[in-house]
Structures are given as structure tokens and as C-alpha cells.
Design a protein that fits this description.
The protein is mainly α. It is built from four helices and no strands. Helices cover 59% and strands 0% of the residues. Helix 1 packs antiparallel against helix 2 and helix 1 packs across helix 4. The model has no long low-confidence stretch (mean pLDDT 83).
């Protein structure tokens, strides 16, 4: 199963929406209507699934003072790819 499909399944499960409504350009706050708590739950599930840590600094860069997750699926996908690659290279 590809990383993006796994990511779509996590998001659809956490936010209770159909996977076919999720694309790389889907925005968490606007398209998925995710609030701050939803965003935190999704991030925790992603961290667990992919065995990575998504830093508070990264999240803050996309939420700012609003607290709403203002990132796209592509943003998260690219973060996972870059951090999984680092983990593999560290072995």
C-alpha cells in the first residue's frame, strides 16, 4: 500500500469522510473542515502509522495563531517522505 493511500485512510478514518474526497491538494481546515482537535488527532495517528515525529514547529508554521490546520495533504505527504527517508538513511 502506498504512503499516500495509507495517509488517505488515516485522514478519512479520523475525520469520517470518504477517501475519494481526499486528494493531494485537499486542505485540512477548508476542504475537510478539520478543527484544532481534529488536526491533533490526525497528526498523532500519522505519527504512529509512519513512526515519525511531526514537530510542533512544523505544525505551528501551518497553523499560526488560529490553531486551525492550514496544510494540504501534499504538505503532510512530503513531510512523511522526507522524514522516512532520513530514518532509513540513519540505519
Amino acid at each position: 500500500m502506498t504512503i499516500f493511500i495509507r495517509l488517505k485512510i488515516i485522514v478519512s478514518t479520523q475525520l469520517e469522510i470518504e477517501t475519494d474526497k481526499i486528494t493531494l491538494n485537499t486542505n485540512f481546515a477548508h476542504a475537510l473542515r478539520a478543527d484544532e482537535l481534529d488536526g491533533k488527532e490526525v497528526i498523532l495517528a500519522i505519527e504512529e502509522e509512519f513512526d515519525i515525529e511531526i514537530t510542533d514547529e512544523y505544525i505551528y508554521n501551518y497553523t499560526g495563531l488560529s490553531g486551525y490546520p492550514n496544510f494540504t495533504m501534499k504538505d503532510i505527504f512530503e513531510y512523511i517522505i522526507s522524514h522516512k527517508k532520513q530514518n532509513i538513511e540513519a540505519i
